[in-house]
Here is the input.
Amino acid sequence: MNFESSALLIVDLQNELLHPNGAYARGGATSAAIAALPARLKPAVELFRKNGGLVVATLFTLVPGRGGEPIISPHLKALRPFLCKGDFAPGSWGQQLVDELAPADATVEKIAYSAFYMTRLEWVLRKCGIEHLYVGGIVTNGGVASTVRDAHVREFECTVLADGCAAFSSQIHDAALEGLRPVATISTVAEVMQGS
Here is the structure.
């Protein structure tokens, strides 16, 4: 692996999504597979830090609108009706990368599934000379899949860390990984560690 041109992209592993005091726990939207991800990804984060690779975290964000009420897309409001004012707010504790993986070299706020949609992610990656993304995070069928597909059309090489991603069901996770095979290499954290 060429660490100088590689980045570890951590998709949406934030306090609101994983911490017991976060919005998703409050709403009952928890998953053991998702909760296990920080520990699974920590060796990869340490590997990148030790070797000068770039660690980038995407931070799902609910932008405050009128009266400070968050702007929530209708599809997300239907999926997660418990989301409310203050959740995923810019600069808030809930929006931040979980402590176990912090700090990232760069963070990118995102407002949709893809971390490339209306964000500075591509600019950061190009300015840092990144050609290959190693991707982990949540959810496999949402933020991870959308980001990897958008990376592919921008001609970044992608390796998806199968055990570094999760969804709210193992069937959906597996199907999403299978669907990404035409645009990415599917690997594991251990295989990446061995190949470094």
About this structure: The longest strand covers residues 157-166.
